[in-house]
Amino acid sequence: MSRPRILVTGLGLVTALGPDAETCWHAVVGGKCGVGPVDCFDVSPYPGKLGAQIRFPLPLPRLRPHDQRRLSRCDRIGLAAAEEALLDAGSPPMDDRFGVAVGAGAGGMVDAEGYHERFVREGAGTRAPLRNLYSFLPDATAEWIARAFGLTGPRATVATACSSSATAIGIGADWIRSGRADRVLCGGADALSRVTWAGFNALRAVDPAPCRPFDAARAGISLGEGAGFLVLEREDLVKGRPRAVFGGYGVTSDAFHMTNPHPEGASASAAIRAALADAGVRPEDVDYVNAHGTGTPANDVAEAKAIRAALGVGTKACVSSTKSQVGHTLGAAGGVEAVVTVLAVERGVAPPNVSTKDVDPACLPVDVVLGRGRELAIRHAVSNSFAFGGNNCALVFSSIAR
Amino acid sequence: MTRIVATGAGVLASPGTGREAFQAGLRAGGRGAQRVEGWALRPGAPDLAFRVADFDPKKFVAAAAVRRMDRTGHLAVAAAKLALADAGLAGPLHRIAVILGAGGAGVDTTSGFHRRLVETAGADPNPMAFPSTVPNAAAGQISIATGITGFNTTLVQTGASGEEAVALAAELLEAGRADAVLAGGVDEISLMMHHALGRLRGLSRTGCRPFDRAADGTVLAEDAGLVVLERLEDARKRGARPLAELVAYGRASSPARPLAYGPASAASAAMRDALARAGVAARDVAWVSSPANAVRGADARCAAAIAEVCPQAAVSSIAGACGESLAIGGVRSAASVAACAAREIPPTEGLADPASSLDHVRETRPLRGPALQHGAGTGGVDVALLWRTFE
């Protein structure tokens, strides 16, 4: 089956480490950690008090003031990363051949909570400002992005918690392959919220220290916020600078448990294999895996098994989790980590795990990168995103120069 | 081109549970809306809702698992099991995909979770409730309850969520990412959604009367509707009986605000896109299954799009008998499949005095040609599905 090659031509990234992809990338390879104190709401009732909060002012979005008043924090983070990605791609024609696929997690929850608190206190007759009702909709960020930039091709909001934006990237790429779109802006955005903060703490899934993926002493996640977007284009239309090849993707389901991963990582491994098959890449040619790597005891050991099962027991691939630096950005994680993976492929550097000291023997012999980025010619890279509901997505990116 | 057929449908909605009972319910005009009990509504507020009748989750879900799901999970798992049984589909489990649309799925659980945070100053979050706050909880529960390990995702696009799910299902089948797909939608009712729809769209005190001059708002509903889609060759190979063919799907997007619809021209563009891809002439469309839900401006928009694209077509909306659940596009898809299988157009319940001169269906009548199903999402997304009786 002949199908068009899809190139990544634009990147946009906003995380606690910085307001743009270049700043974030330098912090990532330099081994910086964005996890620290959180003051965007009261975290004092919870054992976990650290997170990766964005502390710089977000840019003014390209929307009229009437619309700007209706934006959630998540929308603003997403609009900033989306604009960077579109500019980075050289602002290709923004029309009905340009799709938008966005992954959503908590989304506008932190703003919706303000409305909902009045709903709880005042009852169903509350006249809380209507503009905050927009923030309840997981699809709001996609609609604002489409509106701000005039992108009127196919549109979708994927809401599968922590794998949302990875799956959005895959679905967006399929629109190009099937001829439904020429270009797609895809990825995701998410913001810290009281609901997710309280929820993950209630599940005892938050590490009181900055998260330590694959460490023997790992004790859970660190929550974060951010956005990561890619511009994907059909190869024959590319005028700008291609950064990497989007190879393929795979999505599977554990059929096991709502919050615990399958202990053997069976379906996670199947997602990686499906992505490699989709990309036409041999498992032994994968040089880097950007892991889901949440830092929970259950995820990391299951993921290490899944990686070994998919790539081969003797795999030489380097593995790291960007969550050790930018936290778990939930609905944005797949997009954020896809941008980091593309930069790793383009620049030939495997990013590190920063807070991990002693790799859990149960996660070996996976080669976990520690401390700072490691120079590495990366032919093909895999980015994993797993989620509540037993949802698994893997993406494959390849070097342009392969 | 890949031919895609529906080989089963599972539906739980006010008019009935299961494809045939549901269709019979539509024929009879449904059971009507009921007063909701136990909600702290402000005095004089509309208090109607469409509920799934006589629903016992234990008939579909193991007793221990019932407690781990919210109502959305119960409805979705039940619809999945009904759809798989209707299609006679049992595997292979890793080649079956689950694509759910969700408008507000999880809102009730999220609202309850946050209510407890507000009332305890954040001190006592409920760990049992948190996993069901994510919109994909229902799709995950389907996977856990059935053992299906294929592609699994959840799309959110208000009133177009269900149709978006069916469109993505077709794309997955075309791309070979699955051999069969459970596609549709699920939504629950909640005081929070009732409140939001009341403020934003208007809720009726008397009933849902789509397309009617006297329409005074919609009525909130809970429902789940899933169809089983397969490539025709695979359906044939396993000896399955095609109920309907999904000939094409079309989309149109406009840069509308999150809670606003695009112009009527976007709705007609989605319909034309589906027709063009199907190679079906607009004049041959026999029936339009419309998302009109008795919110007047939105109904007028739906009617205008039909008048522009296929003014000769018979028109009806199941919302008169089912209400509005947001992801009702799943149930609407099940209704399209049932209609094609039985060659029968369901009527618009509650319509007495049409506000437009379209050919409104007020009594069940024969279906003799392609059916065009419209899903209208706020944020400017319209999706159209073109179905026909399998020949």
Question: What's the gist of this structure?
Answer:
The complex is a heterodimer of chains A (402) and B (391). With 402 residues, chain A is α/β, with parallel strands linked by helices. Chain A contains eleven helices and 16 strands.
CATH superfamily of chain A: Thiolase/Chalcone synthase
CATH topology of chain A: Peroxisomal Thiolase, Chain A, domain 1
Number of helices of chain B: 12
How many E-type strands of chain A? 16
Q: Could you describe the 3D structure shown?
A:
The complex is a heterodimer of chains A (402) and B (391). Chain A has 402 residues and is an alpha/beta fold. Chain A has one domain: Thiolase/Chalcone synthase (Peroxisomal Thiolase, Chain A, domain 1). Helices cover 31% and strands 21% of the residues of chain A. In chain A, the strands form 3 sheets. Chain A has an 11-stranded mixed sheet with strand order 5-4-6-8-1-9-16-15-10-11-13, sandwiched between helices. In chain A, strands 2-3-7 form a 3-stranded mixed sheet. In chain A, strands 12-14 form a two-stranded antiparallel sheet. In chain A, 69% of the residues are buried. By secondary structure, chain B is an alpha/beta fold. Helices cover 34% and strands 21% of the residues of chain B. Chain B has helices at 19-27, 63-66, 71-87, 107-119, 137-146, 161-175, 191-200, 232-237, 264-278, 296-309, 319-322, 329-342, and strands spanning 4-13, 16-17, 34-35, 48-50, 96-101, 152-155, 180-187, 220-221, 223-231, 244-253, 287-289, 314-316, 344-345, 359-360, 365-366, 371-377, 381-388. In chain B, the strands form 3 sheets. In chain B, strands 1, 2, 5, 6, 7, 9, 10, 11, 12, 14, 16 and 17 form a 12-stranded mixed sheet that branches. In chain B, strands 3-4-8 form a 3-stranded mixed sheet. In chain B, helix 9 packs across helix 10. The longest helix of chain B has 17 residues, at 71-87. Chain B is globular and about 60 Å long. The model of chain B has no long low-confidence stretch (mean pLDDT 96). Chains A and B meet through helix 4, helix 5, strand 5, helix 6 and helix 7 of A and helix 4, helix 5, strand 6, helix 6 and helix 7 of B.
